[in-house]
Design brief:
heterodimer; A: alpha+beta; 45% helix; B: alpha/beta; 5 strands; 38% helix
Chain lengths: 428, 149
């Protein structure tokens, strides 16, 4: 028996002390064992907020991740507002969704161009491809900057979004700024379409084809989007967000620092492809045209389709952002905030973060957080990701170990896991 | 010479947040500070052509005691610093900076400094350990000297 240990790039994160990665054990007749351990940061942040005043806790949650800070902030605020029995006005919801779209654009652009594309072009990373592919890296950073700027204008900061408060926003940008945001989104649309065309040409490895159960938030108002009060599964089932624990069970696995999750006893997937699989009928505009023309590539059976689904969403969310801004501007001037009374209660928010369903469940008692449960998309995906790594390994266990390592890393990257926002240090 | 101070870190992981704390003190004093957290790419949206960059961050070291303040300049930033700044997108801060330098000539020509504070504890929590807390004034002083030179 030969043992092949294939650490992926998470293994140097100080917090997990070099234990993160993929371990594949190969015997004489094939793959014996596949173990995937990816750190799940936010599970450990919940405890920090217990006993904190609600507004103080809401300032902590976005700090879980610099890249997904808007997703964490907006989901936490919605859970808190549900807990205290407050519903924001439609125009406030629209502008919050625009802020969330900024996060989506930034995250998808960085993932596709800086993480995924180097694999396909034969580079070890974007730094090595920039000389030859300046246009592509430039598009990535242009889109990333657009997303950051949107978050900066609506959230008051590109990270941590202090401007999102219970009841609405601390303050709103000037009307001219929102008009400019529309213009910038329109200017970005061709770059998003270029991205879709580029990723439509990339190989989706058939070795990992197989049935996948996809879970996604069922969008409100029958428009493809981010917020929703129900979870929809590709098996036809749907259930209220509040009952997530009845359908999704978390469990400890011996080899992993993070818990895995099963839906009705089986691994499942969340993310852009899961949203497309469950909600494609709710797409519209240019994204719907692209979906119709390329739906055979957006296959529900292949995790690599997640990359193309993200590219499709770049197109969709740019157009959706423009429409949401129009909705908000039609009601201008907008009062930024309503008064809220912090009452005791329990609220669950499920939103679509760039990587899939993000759950915040908060209990408020005496103005403080009495209970918090946060489940991130990466945590939901771990069990399914491990299955797909196994499938890839089973097809390629006889290959050169470096080739096997490369292919299994590509599987993991297709899921766009968010793994290391919890710690970052330099080593001297 | 205009100076941009880039504060990095995660303040939910104890000493990992020291760069942000130093950055906020300097911002209150009126310095030009970009609080980037763990996202070096925020620089591309916020860079105004400053001729000098000062990166302030937490560092792990076997050679220096916790609370030591390390100053690297120029090529030393890239040569001596083995970056483990793994952001959510796997990309290290130093690699990210190198990438941005390839896209922006002004950035490539900028004078780069790195001021690092050697950490004691990287674990869940919002407070700094005492050795690192004591190093904050020293780091502020070093950066003020760099900015005024």
């Amino acid at each position: 028996m030969k043992n092949v240990y294939l650490p992926i790039t998470v293994d140097h994160i100080a917090r997990i002390e070099g234990k993160g990665g993929v371990e594949i054990v190969i015997g004489d007749d094939g793959v014996k064992e596949v173990k995937l351990n990816i750190i799940e940061g936010p599970r450990f942040f919940e405890a920090i907020t217990i006993g904190k005043k609600l507004d103080e806790a809401l300032a902590v949650y976005p700090r879980i991740c610099s890249f997904c800070s808007a997703a964490h902030k907006l989901t936490a605020v919605e859970a808190a507002e549900k807990a205290i029995g407050f519903t924001p006005r439609e125009e406030i919801r629209a502008l919050r969704e625009v802020l969330y779209i900024g996060d989506m654009i930034e995250s998808h652009a960085l993932h596709l161009y800086l993480l995924v594309l180097p694999d396909y072009l034969g580079y070890s990373g974007p730094l090595h491809m920039v000389d030859k592919y300046k246009k592509e890296i430039g598009i990535a950073l242009d889109l990333k900057n657009l997303g950051s700027w949107m978050m900066d204008e609506l959230g008051a900061r590109a990270i941590h979004q202090e401007n999102v408060v219970l009841g609405g926003f601390g303050k709103l940008p000037r009307r001219e700024t929102l008009e400019r945001m529309k213009d910038k989104l329109k200017e970005a649309l061709p770059k998003a379409e270029y991205t879709f065309e580029l990723f439509a040409k990339l190989e989706q490895y058939r070795e990992v084809e197989g049935p996948i159960t996809h879970l996604a938030v069922k969008p409100r108002n029958d428009v493809y989007g981010i917020y929703g009060d129900y979870i929809k599964a590709s098996d036809g089932n749907e259930f209220p967000s509040e009952s997530y624990k009845e359908h999704i069970k978390e469990f400890v696995v011996e080899h992993s620092f993070a818990k895995h999750s099963h839906y009705h006893g089986k691994p499942f997937m969340v993310g852009a492809i899961s949203r497309v699989v469950n909600n494609w009928k709710l797409l519209y505009g240019r994204a719907k045209e692209l979906y119709d023309a390329h739906k055979e590539l957006l296959r529900p059976t292949n995790p690599f389709a997640n990359n193309l689904a993200q590219a499709l969403e770049l197109v969709y969310f740019i157009e959706r952002g423009i429409d949401l801004l129009d909705e908000a501007l039609a009601k201008w001037p907008i009062r930024p905030r309503d008064e809220v009374t912090v009452k005791d209660g329990f609220g669950v928010s499920t939103t679509e973060a760039p990587r899939g369903i993000l759950v915040y469940a908060l209990e408020v008692k005496d103005g403080k957080v009495a209970y918090a449960d946060i489940i991130t998309p990466t945590a939901f995906n771990l069990a399914m990701m491990e299955e797909h790594v196994r499938m890839m390994a089973e097809k390629h266990y006889n290959d050169d170990p470096e080739r096997l390592k490369f292919l299994t890393e590509m599987v993991v990257r297709a899921y766009d896991p968010c793994i290391s926002c919890s710690v970052h240090v330099a080593k001297l | 010479m205009r100076t941009l101070i880039i504060a990095l870190g995660n303040e939910l992981m104890k000493d990992d947040g020291v760069g942000l704390k130093v950055g906020r003190i300097l911002a209150e004093k009126g310095y030009n500070v970009l609080e980037a957290g763990t996202d070096i790419f925020l620089l591309s949206n916020n860079y105004q052509g400053e001729e000098r960059l000062v990166i302030i961050d937490a560092v792990l070291s076997d050679k220096f005691a916790p609370g030591s303040v390390v100053h690297l300049k120029g090529r030393g930033v890239f040569e001596k610093l083995k970056a483990e700044l793994r952001s959510a997108h796997f990309m290290g801060v130093i690699d990210g900076l190198k990438l941005l330098m390839k896209l922006d000539e002004r950035l490539a020509k900028a004078e780069v400094h790195f001021v690092g504070i050697v950490v004691e504890k990287i674990e869940l929590g919002t407070e700094l350990s005492s050795s690192v807390e004591k190093a904050v004034p020293r780091a502020v002083e070093i950066i003020e000297k760099i900015a005024s030179s």
